Request: fold
Amino acid sequence: MSKHHPVLSLSQLSIRIGEDDLVKKITFDMYPGEIFALVGESGSGKSLTSLAVMRLLAEGLTIDPDSGIRLADIDLMAQSERQMQTIRGKRVAMIFQEPMTSLNPVIKVGEQVAEVLRLHLGLKSKQAKAKVVELFNEVGIPDAAERYNWYPHQLSGGQKQRVMIAMALACEPQLLIADEPTTALDVTIQAQVLNLLKQLRDERGLAILFITHDMGVVYDIADTVAVMRKGELVELAHKELFFERPRHSYTKQLLKDSIPQVRQRVLQQKQALLELDDLQVHFPVRKGIFQRKVADLKAVDGVTLEIAKGETLALVGESGSGKSTIGQAILRLVNTKNGQIRWLDQKKGWVDLGSLKERDMRPYRKQIQVIFQDPFSALNPRMTVLEIIREGMVTLQVGSQDPVEQEARVDKLLLQVGLFPEHKERYPHEFSGGQRQRIGIARALAVEPDLIICDEPTSALDVSVRAQVLKLLDELQQKYGLSYLFITHDLSIVPTIAHKVAVMQQGKIVESGTVEEVIGRPQHPYTRQLLDSAPSLVKQRIL
Reply:
């Protein structure tokens, strides 16, 4: 196909539910070899647009009959469902944000890709297997012939996403739709997947519709950028022009929220609050029919850290490095094998939390609280916001136990986190992701803690919502002198929130110090690797 003829043309695309327009008159063209980034927050209509191209919209959603969707020489609006089944996978393919939910857990990954080849290309089993091994090699899956027989749970997140890319490329489509394909991945794996997509584009002349809310990723991968807001296309430009001279006020705000604001954060008085000394957490590895213990997995392997009053320590590392296990050990949700977790009690002095019985630990539960990564699963769907926030006050006997006074305190907490008192009678499903995270913060504040463990609290949020939540956490720290253990794999937010950084790899702290020391002058190769993997837009700002 000529580079001058579009692979994909959308003309006045509108998607409705009832009388409401969810996507409003979207028009753009994509060409062979082009990576076209479709950017916007959750609910902006990005994914709906891509599902309309695949003709996979949910029941109740309709495409306006005046809309035009052409894939090269094919009018997709004129195709029957049976005809679309031959087009999907063969001419246009899609990879999704969460590879685990896209792969069948009980079928070998090689067989899942081979099925696509048998269905669309009519290959026999032996031919299909050879082609799958070839595809696995192309997308960088090690020991491809052996991995063919593995199940999804045996692969890492990055390898599962590579399987999905291999499946999407199996029939050599003209168009690949990538819907937030790196959001769930660590920064080093994200860099590998982005490089792979660029390499495949160059080798195959593939057109890629890349859907994301991450401007750092857009800067590294896109040729053309389109911004959606509330179902409308508000800006469309070549990448260089887009970043140098954004026109729309919403685009300018998105860019501002995407680039971390580096701030010098210095504590005036430094008094230790929590000390970890040679902390070890091991999990048994069991095998065989009798599940006998054969080894220990050293999730946390001799970690020593200190957090002062009013200080934020960012604990950085990839999935599986042991970051969250440290948070769970401090909260006494996992047993420690060795080491001490020392807490400064205002009356008793230093107390080793690891040696306390559950009854003796109870008073410290209100002093150490947690905010989780996924704000939806962390909130009980059957409880109102009032009940969720009050629960800690009641069970830990914090403040007045009079229900009227507790309700007044919930009203005050909701206002502090940027919500309204009238929200208290609603249920979690009635709120956006950012609002749910604010409810989680209000719940943590309700018991007047000294330390809050923030376990990836912004990784599930859009950039603008992320910026708001980080600002809120900073304001609360200034107001109440809170300490934070901020667990993250996102280096871009460390200069915004932290006083100190500790970098974790395979259960050990490999480097620690001030933000300026660790981010500005990294000493350990692993820290340098993490920084090298960060999007260029982020590196320009934080280094």
In short: The first helix runs from residue 46 to 53.
